[in-house]
Amino acid sequence: MSIPDVAIHANRGQGLARDIRRMGIFAGRRLLALLLTVLIGVYLTILIANMGGRVDDLRMVQIRGEVSELVRGDPAFFDLPSEERNELMERQVQLEVERLRLDQPFILRSFDYLYQAMILDLGRAEQMHSDAGARDVYSIIVERLPATLLLFGTANLLVFFISVYIALILSRRYGGGLDRTVIALAPSSAAPAWFYGIFLILFFAFVVPVLPAGGMVQAPPPENRLAYAASVLQHMLLPVLAMFLSQIFVSIYSWRTFFLIHSSEDYVDMARAKGLPPRMVERRYILRPTLSPIITSFLLMLIGLWSGSIILEQVFNWPGLGSLLFQAIGHRDTPVIIGSVVIFAYLLALTVFLLDIFYGLLDPRVRVGLQESER
Question: Which site among 47, 67, 196, 288 is 20 to 30 Å from 14 CA-CA?
């Protein structure tokens, strides 16, 4: 190998090491910023879920009521004088207060709750339990998480890939009948998915009863795996269709406009002038340069996945994280509320972090981790 070749390889190695170092610095800074955001969001959730400590007063009333019913309903304490019975109830209440640390100031307990939440030590639910009977918040959430991932992941993947494919077709047939139809239907995406879900349930579950109105699987669940999967798929059709209708037209319109703008670039006209096939032009000169915005859009759709599940899951009685959070709010089950928000926050932070990393890797124009003096 000649001396110039050795120098070239050395420069390439130094450049690669420099890029890796800068990417590592950038990733570390973004990770710290996201963790700080999650920390603030979780602490605000703790304050709101506990109403600044006012929930403690409700807990005290609840504890006194439960202890009073337990003592008065026990035949062993019937013959006790009322004074002794009241002292016994007070001792039981005090033991429960100490166990829950309600005798400490709320501000101290709030930081302890924050630490436990950040390390996913979510404690025990006060009212709710998992289908298996577990009172552990982590078990309750983990039991519901796959249902949300299945439903919203399926719907968003369908919307993303179908909208990109149709948008490419419309960018070749600008001004055609299908193009005008999509433009006319784009405002229909202003309605949320649960709005379409109500009408879909009314029609396909009651007017023409061909699909179930809600739930994830028929009762009792089939024992055969194929029959179980078929039942889940049947119950998924309506909520997936509701999400599909609420997003597809505006997604196609957005991508169609995006591809039209990029297809008018000079380098695309040059490729067409060379006589390259239309498919090759789309793949190499339109899709490849727009890969970064495509990945960005896909991950932003995933962010919508984590945050848009509460109402839709309630409409379709889908046993996911959204319905769990709604039920926890109704039961005032603070540990489950905080745990659900923590999981949502971590999923959002992970999605945003991956978005930043992918964007930095895919787009060579983004020089990540550089100070202004280095540019």
Answer: 288
